[in-house]
Design brief:
The protein is an alpha/beta fold. About 30% of the residues lie in helices and about 20% in strands. Helix 4 (about 175-185) links the parallel strand 10 (about 165-170) and strand 11 (about 190-195). The two termini are about 25 Å apart. The model has no long low-confidence stretch (mean pLDDT about 95).
């Protein structure tokens, strides 16, 4: 079969042996595969990622001198069942799968380990237990976006954002756009999006953002009515004293009323901020600009060293959360949302190439005005998106 292999940052289309499914595994024909931002970064920076993964106990992450087949966002069709499979899905069934593969040494990440080749290829092997049929005749293009949309859905769930909360999305690349789509699918009524790129701001509007700002001209933190948000320390101090004085007038101990209010969820309003850039300095700028008690969900992956001032986050009592990936249930639920039309990620798809066009697609994705998500069709002869 043909596949795109990355070695020492060079992408090349090569012939490789047809993969053989192991116990409980299935070989699938790749129909579409998305090019992820992590693939772009891994091309030149996978050794740094590998060092970080090793510190967390995973020493099988991709290394630059290894022949890596990227690709963890994909849809395909069942081609062959390996030994020990339940064979619940017939040959030819359209499927997606979580990008994890069990080997003798443990579970590896598909497309980001030499031990688990990904979907920049005509075929790949997946775990039968992690494979799901594509329902409702969902197109392979949209089905291939199940994985990145599951990342966004996990981030939104971790943010615990309510329908009446203000959600602020910093960075409108594919990750940020996915977060916007999932926030609107959850019913969040006020979503603010911020990006330097006019093209990406336009995509944010297409994905449902209610307010879109250029951060060079306007702050996303002041772009909507902040009624109820506490924007400085004196306001928080006045709220504490004023609330205490009001509760003193009640015929019960003020502490009983305060405790009841906490039990009922009474608390200062605050936005939920999604950092989807992954560049040094963005977390600190979010902490500095956010109202008091804000929740900051870090979705963008900054591999290098970053810094922020803890005292500022402490003074504002910022809730800082980091997210990674998704659960199998979130992956399944995302697929269902796509199939039922609750989420439409098609505005993200800005081009399609064949295997011979992957190198050009990587270059094209460097221009935020031109592209957001480019898909690979292994049977296509297209060499430019």
């Amino acid at each position: 079969m043909r596949a795109v292999v990355c070695t020492d940052a060079t992408l090349a289309v090569v012939e490789r042996p047809e993969p053989e499914p192991g116990h409980g595994q299935v070989r699938i024909e790749v129909v579409r595969c998305g090019i992820c931002g992590s693939d772009l970064h891994a091309r030149h920076g996978c050794d740094q990622w590998a060092d970080l993964a090793a510190k967390a106990g995973y020493d099988r992450f991709a290394r630059s001198d290894q022949p890596i087949v990227f690709g963890h966002e994909f849809s395909g069709e069942v081609a062959e069942h390996g030994p020990g499979c339940r064979r619940g899905l017939a040959t030819g069934t359209p499927v997606v799968a979580l990008p994890l593969l069990r080997g003798q040494a443990g579970v590896d990440t598909l497309g980001l380990s030499v031990h688990a080749p990904g979907a920049y290829a005509e075929q790949l092997v997946v775990e039968e237990s992690l494979m799901m049929p594509v329902p409702n005749g969902l197109s392979p293009e949209v089905a291939a976006l199940t994985e990145p949309m599951a990342v966004a859905w996990h981030a939104v769930r971790r943010g615990e954002v309510g329908k009446g909360d203000v959600a602020i999305v910093i960075g409108c690349g594919p990750v940020g756009l996915g977060v916007i789509l999932m926030l609107k699918a959850k019913g969040v009524r006020k979503v603010v999006a911020s990006d330097l790129s006019p093209g990406r701001r336009a995509l944010a509007t297409a994905c449902g953002a209610d307010v879109v700002v250029d951060p060079r001209q306007d702050s996303p933190f002041t772009a909507v009515d902040r009624r109820g948000h506490l924007n400085d320390i004196p306001s928080a101090l006045e709220l504490a004293v004023g609330t205490r004085e009001k509760l003193e007038r009640l015929p019960v101990g003020w502490w009983h009323a305060w405790r009841l209010g906490e039990a009922l969820g009474a608390a200062p309003k605050h936005p939920v901020i999604f950092e989807c850039v992954g560049m040094p300095g963005v977390i600190e700028s979010a902490i500095e600009g956010a109202p008091l008690f804000s929740r900051v969900v870090v979705v963008g992956v900054c591999v290098g060293v970053d810094r922020f001032t803890p005292a500022m986050a402490i003074n504002k009592e910022i809730d800082l959360r980091f997210v990674l990936g998704y659960t199998p249930l979130e992956f399944r639920d995302t697929l269902q949302m796509l199939a039922e039309g609750k989420v439409d990620p098609r505005p993200l798809i800005t081009g399609t190439v064949g295997l011979d066009g992957v190198d050009a697609a990587f270059s094209a994705l460097g221009d935020p005005e031109a592209h957001a998500k480019i898909l690979i069709d292994p049977r296509s002869a297209a060499i430019a998106p």
